[in-house]
Amino acid sequence: MYSGITQASMAKALFMSNAQYNRKENGQAKISLREARKMADLLDLNKKIIEKFWMADNTYALMKVDKDLFYDALKIVEMYYDNYETYIELPNKNCSYSTIDECLKQKKKK
Question: What pLDDT is stored for residue 92 in this prediction?
Answer without folding.
Answer: 59
